[in-house]
Amino acid sequence: MVDTSKDTKDSTTAGRDTAFSRRSLSAAALTSPGAAAPLGTTARKLRRAEGVSLLREQNPLVLRSARLTPCRRLNGGARATGTGARARPRAGHREGALPHESSGPVEAGPGACTFDARHLYTKKVCGHGSVRAVSYNILADTYAQTEFSRTVLYPYCAPYALEIDYRQNLLKKELAGYSADLICLQEVDKSVFVDSLAPALDAFGLEGLFKIKEKQHEGLATFYRRDKFSLLSQHDIAFSEALLSEPLHKELCEQLAKYPLVQEKVLQRSSVLQVSVLQSTTDPSRKLCVANTHLYWHPKGGNIRLIQIAVAMSHIQHVACDLYPRIPVIFCGDFNSTPSSGAYSFISSGGIAEDHEDWVSNGEEERCSMSLSHPFKLLSACGEPAYTNYVGGFHGCLDYIFIDRNALEVEQVIPLPSHEEITTHQALPSVSHPSDHIALICDLKWK
C-alpha cells in the first residue's frame, strides 16, 4: 500500500512508520514504469499462464527451488520438481527413470496454510440470489522484493517465501478456493495479472479487469463470475487527473486550491479508482456498481485520504445515481484507515465535518478544513475486525467491503484465520500466507 511519488521513507523511523502496513522503496525501484493496460482488458484475451493446469486439477503446490524457476517438462510431459523426478519413456526406449537435479536447494513448502479452514466455508459457489465478495491486498512484488522489505518490514519471513513465484501459487490456490462471485484485489503487479492470476481464475469462470496506477507497476484488479454477471460498463479514474479535469469535481478542486500544500500532495498521488457496472445474467433488473480502490498509505495522510474519498464518492454517485439510477454499490479496498479514522467515518456516516481532527493529520501548516458529504448509506459488511493487516511493527483493520445497506444485506461473513494461525510464523507474510493483509470474504444478498 505504498504511494512512492515524492515520498520515500527513512529507515530509521521504520518502527513507528510501518503502521498502516507501510511499504516504502527507493526511487530506483520505480525507474522503469510499465505501460498502462487499456480499460476493459479481459482475462480470456490474455495468454494463459503455466499455473492454470495446476489449479484446474486442484493439485497440491509443487515445491520450488530457492530460485523458484518454473518447473521444466521432461520427456513425455512429466514435471521435474526436484532430484529423482521420473518421466515416461521416450519412443523406442524401455526405461523411463530420468534423474533431474534441482538448480538450487529445495525449500520446504507451506504445510498448512492460513486459508485452509476458510475454504471449508466456501466449497460451493453461492446461488444466483446471493453474491460472494472478496477484497484482498495481495502485496505487490514491486514492494516485497526491496531490500527494505526483506530486512526491515518482513525480516521474519523466509526469503524464498517473499519470491513472487512462491507467493502467486499460494494466491491462486487461496483465491480459487473461495468460490467467489466478485474479487477486488489491490497491489496487483501488471505481470502477475496478465501471466498468472487472470488466466488461472479464468479457468474457474472468473473474468478479470485491470487498472494500473499512474507511473507505477501495480494497480487494481476486479474479477466477476461470468455465469452470474455480464459487464455493462467501466468507469475507472485516477484521482489526481479526475480532480483536475472532470467538471464533476470542480467545486472540490476550488476548495482544495485554498490549501496549496495539501493540493500539491493530493495531485502527486498515483491512487486510482476502479468502477465496474455489472448486470445479473438471470435477472437483468439486478445491477451492481462495484468499486475498488487503494488509498494513500502515509500514517499522517488522513487529510489526503479524505480528499481521495470525496473524489471517489462523487464519481461513484455519478455512476450509481446519474448513469444507472439507484443501483446498489459495493465499495471494496485497502483504505489504509482504521475504524477510528475520519476516512472510515466519512464513508460509513455519509459526511465529514470541517473541524475533524484528520484535517490536521500532518500538522497545522497542512490544515485543510472542509465539510463534505455523500448520499450513500454504506455499511462495513465484515464489521471491524481486530486486524486485516498484520506485520512485525503494526496490526490493525485497514480493509473493508462497504455495501449499500438500503439494497443489500449480509448473509454470512467468512471467519478470518485465528490469531494462532496468523502468528505461527510471527507475522505476515509467511511461508503459509502470501500477503501482509488478510482477505475479507462475505456472502451478500439483495433485500
TrEMBL record:
Q: Which gene encodes it?
A: PDE12
- Gene Ontology molecular functions: metal ion binding; poly(A)-specific ribonuclease activity
Q: Where is the composition biased (Low complexity)?
A: 73-86
According to its UniProt entry, the protein's GO biological process terms are:
mRNA processing; nuclear-transcribed mRNA catabolic process, deadenylation-dependent decay
Q: Which cofactor does it need?
A: Mg(2+)
Entry superkingdom: Eukaryota
Taxonomic placement: Eukaryota, Metazoa, Chordata, Craniata, Vertebrata
Outline the segment boundaries, as ranges, of region: Disordered. Answer: 1-20, 73-109
Q: Where is the composition biased (Basic and acidic residues)?
A: 1-10
Please give the chief subcellular localization of this protein: mitochondrion
Q: Which Pfam families match?
A: Exo_endo_phos
Record protein name field: 2',5'-phosphodiesterase 12
Keyword Mitochondrion included in the entry's annotation: yes
Endonuclease/exonuclease/phosphatase domain residues are 135-437
The record's similarity note reads: Belongs to the CCR4/nocturin family.
In terms of InterPro entries, this protein maps to:
CCR4/nocturin_mRNA_transcr (IPR050410), Endo/exonu/phosph_ase_sf (IPR036691), Endo/exonuclease/phosphatase (IPR005135)
